[in-house]
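User: Some background: our group keeps a shared notebook of sequences we're curious about, and every so often someone picks one and asks for a predicted structure to add to the entry. Today it's my turn. The entry only has the sequence so far, pasted here. Could you supply the structure so I can complete it?
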Amino acid sequence: MIALDACVLIAHLDSSDAHHATATELLADTGGRQLIASPITIAEVLVGPARAGQLDRGMNALRQLGVDAVDLGADAPWQLATLRAATGLRLPDCCVLLTAEASAAEIATFDERLRVVAQGRGIAVRA
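Assistant: Of course. Here's the predicted structure to add to the notebook entry:
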C-alpha cells in the first residue's frame, strides 16, 4: 500500500504544476499496489477542483487512479494531536503519517519535512 500526500495528487492532476511529470511517473510506477489517502488528504486535493466548479471531475480523476479513502478511526483526533505535538508537522501531514502507520503503508510525498519524519519512524518514502 502507498499512502498519498496531497501534493502528489495535486501535482498529478495539474499539468502546470512543477512536479506534474514526477507525480504522474510515481503514480504510474506503483506496481499495482493499493493507493490510499485519508479523507482530509482527499478533501485537500479536491479544493482546487471545487473552486473551479469541477468537483465531479476531480472526484472522477481520483476514482480512475484507484485512490481509496482510509478511515482513521474514532481515536484519530487523539492520535493526530499526539503526532502533531511530537513531530511539529502540519495537521494534514500528520493525516498522511497516521494513514501510513495505521495501514502499514509507505508514503508518496514531495514534502521534505514529512519525508524526514516518516523515515525517522521507519516508514519508507517515495518521492
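Suggested note for the entry: The first helix runs from residue 6 to 13. The chain is about 60% helix and 10% strand.
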